[in-house]
Amino acid sequence: MESLRDLYHDEIQSLRDFRIKLDAHKIDRHDIEQFTTEYEELVAQAKVITRVSDRLQKKLDDANTQIKDQNNEIKEKNLKLEETIQQLVKARVGRKASSIILFVAIILYVAEEYFFEEIIRSYVSSPFLNLFVLLFIALILKFLESGLEESFLKGEKRKIMKEKKKKVAGIK
């Protein structure tokens, strides 16, 4: 490709020659016709270059618009993916907490039925007391389950943050 300096060398030289003749008052009809012909060619070339440039700019604008649309779509999909991941983590943590609480509930139920029921009946003679004790245990277990879920979620968040820090440190 020609350098910028060489690109219009002939046109610039023609203009200089014409000005020299103009300053010297040595312009004839042939010089004017030659200059106008060169000028018309230059204008025609400028029109072609402008049309090509306009088409290229339109293509570039369309490509930029398409890239922006795709970026927005990617952002939306990333947000949906993050929400899905959070839901999966929450479900996994909930299942883990429920499993632990179920195990504890079985142990407490068996302990209450075989060990504490006789002790409680010896002090209080209410037929519904056993039912109230079981209901109290169930309520305590529900609160424990919520606390376990929250604790596990905090642990997962810390784990994710550590992974993000490692990735950021690895990028730098």
Task: Explain how this protein is built.
By secondary structure, the chain is mainly alpha-helical. It has one domain. 91% of the residues lie in helices and 0% in strands. The chain is rod-shaped and about 135 Å long. The protein contains 4 helices and no strands.
Describe the protein's topology:
Elements: H1 4-7, H2 9-23, H3 29-123, H4 129-171
Helix pairs in contact: 2-3, 3-4
Main sheet: strands, sense, barrel: none
Helix coverage percent of residues? over 70%
Structural class: mainly alpha
Series of secondary-structure elements, N-terminal to C-terminal: HHHH
Radius of gyration: 43 Å
Low-confidence stretches: none
The fraction of residues assigned to DSSP E strands is: under 5%
Query: How many distinct domains?
Result: 1
Overall spatial form: rod-shaped
Query: How many beta-strand runs?
Result: 0
The chain-level mean pLDDT equals 85
Q: How many individual helices?
A: 4
Distance between the termini: 40 Å
Question: What are the salient characteristics of this protein?
Answer:
0% strand, mainly alpha, 172 residues
Overview in brief:
By secondary structure, the chain is an all-alpha fold. It has helices spanning 4-7, 9-23, 29-123, 129-171. Helices cover 91% and strands 0% of the residues.
